[in-house]
Amino acid sequence: MQKMPDLQNHPLVADRLARLRSAACAPKEFRHYLSDIARLLVLPATANLETNNTEITTPLASMTGLKLARPIVLVPILRAGLGFSEPFLQMLPEATVAHYGMKRNEESLQPEVYLERIPDHIAGSEVFVLDPMLATGGSAIAAIDGLKKRGAKHIHFVCLVASPEGVKSLEESHPDVRITLAALDEGLNGQGYIVPGLGDAGDRIFGTL
Predict the structure, then answer these.
(1) Which phi and psi (to 5°) does residue 80 adopt?
(2) How many CB atoms lie within 10 A of CB 179?
(3) Which of 5, 39, 76, 186, CA to CA, is 20 to 30 A from 156?
């Protein structure tokens, strides 16, 4: 797998991460800082997309430019992934937005799928699976399994905070998937949550603590 380097030492990313990690960060501010980081992740996440030449005419001359070779599909894993999808859509307004709904079984820590809304053109698209947290890796792996069954071939995974265990599991299950992350944390606790982490991203985004 081609894994993007950890970006947590970038000053802007580090600043926003420190602010939203705080337990005192209210949902409004949490969403704001999450959006800031998501927009900063768009460029590294899309850095290796294939392009084709296109002939254009500027007000002064004709030239050869570049255009993306494939359409883009954003796949937020519900519900926390919704906090990532809007800033990505602001940067990529031409993208289609699919949805993958999952909830974690708190006993087995395994994901349970309750919703799939995937466009027909998924096979020929650049697919960005979006989820703020990569903890055990179960949800990401299950979503990518499902997308590949639908024919997806060009898959990227983007998250805010990951655990080494989650990255390892995703790499082993899907070595062809490119990972972009903002921070690689220490590990998982006994309940499968990332430490130091930031708590439950979905609860903090939507204020359902």
Answers:
(1) -60, -30
(2) 23
(3) 186
The first and second tokens of residue 137, run together, are: 């890796």
Cα distances (Å, whole numbers) of residue 25 to 33, 59, 80, 198 = 10, 48, 16, 10
* Residue with the two structure tokens 């974690």: 104
Strand partners, 118: none
Residue-level pLDDT at 1? 43
Domain spans in the chain, listed from the N-terminal domain onward: 11-51+68-206
How far is residue 148's CA from residue 61's CA, in Å, rounded to a whole number? Answer: 43
Return the sign of the alpha-carbon dihedral for residues 74, 77, 83, 84.
negative
CA–CA distances in Å: residue 149 to residues 2, 66, 142, 143, 166: 22, 31, 11, 10, 22
Handedness of CA 195, 198, 202, 208 (dihedral sign): positive
Burial bucket for residue 125 (CB in 10 Å: 0-12, 13-18, 19+): buried
Whether 164 has a pLDDT exceeding 80, the answer reads yes
| Residues 150 and 128: beta-carbon distance below 8 Å | no
Which amino acid is located at 35 in the chain?
S
Q: Is 192 exposed, middle or buried (0-12, 13-18, 19+ CB in 10 A)?
A: middle
Q: What is the pTM of this model?
A: 0.91
Distance CA 182, CA 167 (A): 13
